[in-house]
Amino acid sequence: xxxxxxxxxxxxxxxxxxxxxxxxxxxxxxxxxxxxxxxxxxxxxxxxxxxxxxxxxxxxxxxxxxxxxxxxxxxxxxxxxxxxxxxxxxxxxxxxxxxxxxxxxxxxxxxxxxxxxxxxxxxxxxxxxxxxxxxxxxxxxxxxxxxxxxxxxxxxxxxxxxxxxxxxxxxxxxxxxxxxxxxxxxxxxxxxxxxxxxxxxxxxxxxxxxxxxxxxxxxxxxxxxxxxxxxxxxxxxxxxxxxxxxxxxxxxxxxxxxxxxxxxxxxxxxxxxxxxxxxxxxxxxxxxxxxxxxxxxxxxxxxxxxxxxxxxxxxxxxxxxxxxxxxxxxxxxxxxxxxxxxxxxxxxxxxxxxxxxxxxxxxxxxxxxxxxxxxxxxxxxxxxxxxxxxxxxxxxxxxxxxxxxxxxxxxxxxxxxxxxxxxxxxxxxxxxxxxxxxxxxxxxxxxxxxxxxxxxxxxxxxxxxxxxxxxxxxxxxxxxxxxxxxxxxxxxxxxxxxxxxxxxxxxxxxxxxxxxxxxxxxxxxxxxxxxxxxxxxxxxxxxxxxxxxxxxxxxxxxxxxxxxxxxxxxxxxxxxxxxxxxxxxxxxxxxxxxxxxxxxxxxxxxxxxxxxxxxxxxxxxxxxxxxxxxxxxxxxxxxxxxxxxxxxxxxxxxxxxxxxxxxxxxxxxxxxxxxxxxxxxxxxxxxxxxxxxxxxxxxxxxxxxxxxxxxxxxxxxxxxxxxxxxxxxxxxxxxxxxxxxxxxxxxxxxxxxxxxxxxxxxxxxxxxxxxxxxxxxxxxxxxxxxxxxxxxxxxxxxx
Amino acid sequence: xxxxxxxxxxxxxxxxxxxxxxxxxxxxxxxxxxxxxxxxxxxxxxxxxxxxxxxxxxxxxxxxxxxxxxxxxxxxxxxxxxxxxxxxxxxxxxxxxxxxxxxxxxxxxxxxxxxxxxxxxxxxxxxxxxxxxxxxxxxxxxxxxxxxxxxxxxxxxxxxx
Lengths: 799, 161
Known about the structure:
The complex is a heterodimer of chains A (799) and B (161). Chain A is of the alpha+beta class. Chain A has 30 helices and 17 strands. In chain A, the strands form three sheets. In chain A, strands 2, 11, 13, 14, 16 and 17 form a six-stranded antiparallel sheet that branches. Chain B has seven helices and no strands. Chain B has helices spanning 2-20, 23-39, 48-81, 95-105, 110-121, 126-133, 137-160. In chain B, helix 1 (2-20) packs across helix 2 (23-39), helix 2 packs across helix 3 and helix 3 crosses helix 6 (126-133). Chain B starts with a helix and ends with a helix. Residues 82-93 of chain B have low confidence and may be disordered. Chains A and B meet through helix 2, helix 4, helix 5, helix 6 and helix 17 of A and helix 1, helix 2, helix 4, helix 5 and helix 7 of B.
């Protein structure tokens, strides 16, 4: 056999697996065409390989860990969070595994011997110093050993302390003399550094007297001094430093470093504990407080903020190996660890909280409409499982917009109606709460366009559980039942690869669609990019002008093959999108839900984002509100509120942080904005500081949108008249009170600094009264229960 | 933590199942890996490739440990019972054929099993595999090829006998 043949044959498996570079692939094909031997080898290998691949890749029955094992793991996690590993643990592990081999070698071979040599040299040097008496030396060694003891074995020190206590009475006076100022701060360091010397002189005197017991007492006292701070790490380090300083140790930097780390660790530990308890109403919650000042910048340009996506490399968690050391130290602080965990696991993006704006500086508040409700259902799901949701999962506008405020529909032929009301803000004394409700027209039956629906269904391994694919299938069955006969349905399934499993079929052929839905099976990874690409391609092929063309993505968003950011995926499908294909995104499953990506996908893909946490929610979306879901009446809907500076001194919008637009974007028709379905309503809330004693209208609300019936851009305006002002919150309409409560609840849950110190129980009190008017609305009754749950959860955590 | 478990448990269980052929043992191995992750206070950076590599490596080591222990126990049992080995498996097709492949897989050395499973069952990229195994990616390819060839031979032998 020739040498090339040998080489080629060694690569045949990779050739079959498709793992070679295009160049290598071409080279092999070229060779195969000419070499019979290698062809034979390939022919021999191929069936075996195919069989192995099939056997391995075949969908195993997707096992999960049994519940008791889950339980054990979570217990371990909790225990680990309660007792973060000690510095010594981390150092040992770091030496063991954390370092790249080369660095470890360097450390063990160089740093340790150097340190040891230094220690010996210093030890010998101090022995040589003639000015020190023998006993002084003795005391120094005691001090050193005590310093070590204090770090290593607090228990032994306690024993010594007990001994000391016994002897206390006999030698009280000299102790007072020498240790009167122990509690002195760092300023007295120099003075204190002298003290051990004085003490050692006393010791030498004692030894002159050959009073052994007295000497022992003194060393116990030193032990005690060092042991005291063992429970308070920072002072301990300082004391050690002092003790060592007396030894003429010039390298006093070393103990300082230890002390610093120690302090950092204990601070970090506290941080973790606080975060774990989920206390979001602490005065400045760690997650939101730093984001708040950055909010205007982030809100002004949402697309430029970093994603909290696992695959995103720009967030600094992907550091080069060189910085391993700094990484290790960074790990010491619990906060950075926590942050990393958030970055890679929870996959929510924090947008901060809208700041208060001075009307004189910026009278315009411009934002894109948002009919998503995912945040509410996700929050509900969290609370029903007995946990507070992560603050960044709570988007105030999505929680407010979940409810039906029964705004009266617009008059004939108008597309939108604006319902504004303003009353004293119940949770912000001295401020007014402005509600702007926008209601879209409900299309009549004859106006409904028929729908061309392309479902993109994630059937990766992560979807294989009843609350994921199972829920998706149930939801689709409900939906198919509600479709009108002339609607058309296609089904794209994607895992490692995407495929069209059901070519476009009329909804009248229900049996065939249901069969395709029931046949869905999970396996493999999530190639969301390919799935979306194929779905849009298919939708473009099946495109019917005048119909509601829509891609519906159902996924847990845990994309791990192909490019995985929403922007990249949308770049791929940009052309189809401009053609007028809408996109609805339905998220399922909790663990690994990539909320940030799904939300952006829906936002940029001209559609809405809904989180399906239960069959009830699926029923609401696919049965009750199907008309709104499928019949978009207006696209690129933007709202601009212009406040009168003489009337409104300052304002703050609640929510819509990631939908903010610049003032000039309002009339820029190229700017993408939200879509509104038939009969849908959107509510925006502002907290206002009114100028005292002023009268007149508060401002103007403008809505700009593309009417999908005519394709024309239109703009309407409605004044914020004086007449909408209500003197007391209790006199405002129930819908107003409901929206105020929902928003305040969201603000508390997401740890908004403006709601710091507010209690969910206060919200529950207000809501209980408002909910009386919604006795038949199960959503409102549910909200009341959730708010009550929240106040209990928080109380539980505070204890 | 819950999210980490949910995101990885299925892949890890399939992996461990491939090596151990015993669902309970596989669950043990995966549980062990997750608990180790907690106990060590997250010794690995939590970005997915590194975490995945760490988890697969830990599950692999746990599985190898379990196999060793099992082998020792089996040796004891066999000595005690002097039990002749079970009937040779009948040649089969369909799902049994798949079973056969999986049975043969357990006869490979653990290192080759590991790479076969990581590449063909889990579909991991070479970079992650080399992070998991500590082998350069060129070597991963070579081992993969050897493993496929060897496994092909084993299957043929088992299929014929």
